Structures are given as structure tokens and as C-alpha cells.
Amino acid sequence: MKKKILSIAALCASSTVLALEPWYGDTEFIKTGLDNGLETSGYWYTYNDNKDGGQSKIILPTQTQAYEGTDYVPSDVILNCGGVCGDAVLAKGSLTYEPFVGLAFNVAGESSPTDPTPALGDASSWGGICITYKSDAAPNLELGLSKDVDKAIGGANPAASLPKSTEPTKKILAWSDFKQPSWYKGETKISGIEAAKQLASVRFKIQAKNNGTYHFNIIKIDSYKNCQTSNIKTIRGTTAARANLFGRILEFTGISIATAEIFNLQGQVVAKGSIDNTASTLNLATLDNGIYMVRVAGKNVNFTQKILLK
Predict the structure, then answer these.
(1) In which domain, by residue range, is 287 found?
(2) pTM of the predicted protein model
(3) How many domains are there within the chain?
(4) Rounded distance, CA 19 to CA 38, Å?
(5) Are residues 149 and 62 in the same domain?
(6) Which pLDDT score, from 0 to 100, does residue 176 have?
(7) Sign of the CA dihedral running 87, 92, 93, 95
(8) 266 near 197, Cβ under 8 Å?
(9) Cβ–Cβ contacts within 10 Å for residue 59, how many?
């Protein structure tokens, strides 16, 4: 097969994202399609029960250190985990209910450069959420709303229960699958469909017994519509499809027709090209030294891979 070198002239130009894009645990943030212009949407952050008297925390691992109780999840955690992984360490303290921790991302970003309060976005077009994860405890996927609404419903946000699983598990949830908890007896009722129209954040919440440590890994986030209509086979781990780096030339094998994108640690596409029978390599000579993620997507292939340019 004749090989053709692809030029990096195809650097990504900024464009308006109209829908939630699949996140494979390979970039620092999720492209929600609802950013309010401040470019603060989609970043993972942690939260816990400390304000209510709990002593729970999340420990996020990296190759060099552990991050305890950080706010935003560092990019090296995501690259090291192939998603967001860590340990939920639950300690009840003075709480009158079971302790909790969680990870979340804002759908529209912060309200302003001086106000970190999450802005609201209408995520109806997503149809719902599709998540692939592992967790030693059964988590909830919860819909975060405005401060006023959250206060009015006393934390009874629409949520969907997920089973605990030590193997990657995929759950496809329509907005109608999110419901307020059965214990809520208040007057302010809100369905998952209504919540999606005024959505502030999506939360992965682990609430379980006191003094427990539970490992978790959030692997993939996508929209309900994408998961319902996609016939693409996701290839992770061992596969014949590979991206092999030789100096600054990235060579693709086991792939017939696909698109390749190169992301930096900020989640920006810095190079892209098409793979077919006449083009199977990508020239990365103009990129700076550092860690990058390769995403390859085609009719029968969809995988991500980390590379190091020296």
C-alpha cells in the first residue's frame, strides 16, 4: 500500500459546537455544546459533604502524587486514568445522614469572570446522558440546578441510580429516567425533562456507609441520542487498530477509513487528518514536545491513545 504523509495544515479552527460531543476520558474537559462564551464549561471538579459537617474526600491519583480534596481535576489525572478515577473516602463526621462525595461538570460554565456560580443551559437536545463507568459503590447520576432551585427542593434533585460494578458498565439514560427521590415530600416538583431545560451541572455522586473507601472510574460521557443511534464499535485496550509513533511520524495500522485528531492537554485539536488506503501517516513535526492524545474514529473503529513527543 502506498503511504502518503498528511500535512498539519489542517489545524483546528474554532467553531461553534452545537451538541454534546463524546468524551472518551482523553481530554481535560467535555465539549457540552452549551458553553456561554467564557470557555469554563465541561471541566471536571470534585465536591463533598464537608460544608454539612462531613469529613469525606476524594483522592485522585497521578504518577507523581495524590490530590486530596482538590477542586478542578488536573489534566494528568485524566490522562493517567483514561477518564477520571480515584477513591471516595467517606467519613460521616457530624452528619445526620450517610456521607457522600462526587464529581461533576458544569454544562454552560461559570456565570461571569468574577462569579463562579454555574450558569444554566438547556440540554434538552441531548435527550439524556450516556455514561460508562466503574464503581465499588452504587452511585447516582444527579442533575444540578440553580442555587435557588436546589435550596427549594432541599437536595432532592432529579437523579438516576447506577449499579455498582468492578467492570466497565454502560448506562443510557433519557431525561425522563431522572426522578426526584422517593423520600422527598416537598411542594416543588421537578422532572428530569424539566431539569434538563435549566441544567447547571451533571453530578456523579457516591453516597454510602460511613468509614468506607470506594474506587471509581468515569470512562466515557456521551448524549443519550448519540448512544441510541451510534452503530460504531468502540475499541479499547487490545486491538489490531493502532497508532505507532516513529520520531515525529504517526503511523496508523489496522484501519481502513477513519479520521484522526491530535489533542493537547487543554483539549484543543492541534492536528487532524483522514486515514484511507492512500494516507496512513500523520506528520507531527511542528508540534511542541509533550503529551498528546490521539483520537481515531471511523465506521468500525473508535479508540484513543496517549503519545509522547520528544
Answers:
(1) 5-14+232-309
(2) 0.70
(3) 2
(4) 17
(5) yes
(6) 96
(7) positive
(8) no
(9) 17
